[in-house]
Fold this protein.
Amino acid sequence: MNSKAIFQTFLVSGFILLLFAPAKVFGHCDGMDGPVIKAAQAALHSSDVNLVLLWVKKDNEQLIRQAFAQALEVRKLGPSAKELADRYFFETLVRVHRAGEGAPYTGLKPAGRDLGPAITAADKAIEQGSANNVEKLLTDALSNGIHKHYHALLNAKNYDNNNTEEGREYVAQYVTWVHYINGIYQAAALHHGGKDAAHLEHEE
């Protein structure tokens, strides 16, 4: 396939990706300032595909190698072609990466999005070489959540047995409290790989 044919393939494929991209957004690896795009930019700049292969499953490695080779070829055609080739490779890499995570591809997102405190802190921890700020963020959020739900439960606990609505409010607070605590424990145990992780997925 010659360079012009490859260029046309990029153009058509790029429009297809944009047209059929789902609307919902997950994660932050689809951002133009995210780690996947940064890896792609470095790979294209250095012509080293190994810089991006770690972001996809082994089964998809060949697909990315082919897209990368095509992108390098099209980039030689001029500034406009380079821009289109880079964009297509970014979209292909992010789409394949997200598919490997079981997430839909929703298109590339602009740099500078507000990702919330957790993702920002997680990324900074890697840059700073310390998880202390992440630990404090999560500890504070956990403590606030526990006390909020616990006090709401206590306030509803001394309900009048003759007042069914007050009793239902207590049950609602009880269910919220138990699910909140159990949900936090499950998340921690499942990701930590503790001995209880296997059966937690099936508990209510």
Remarks:
- Residues 3-100 form one domain.
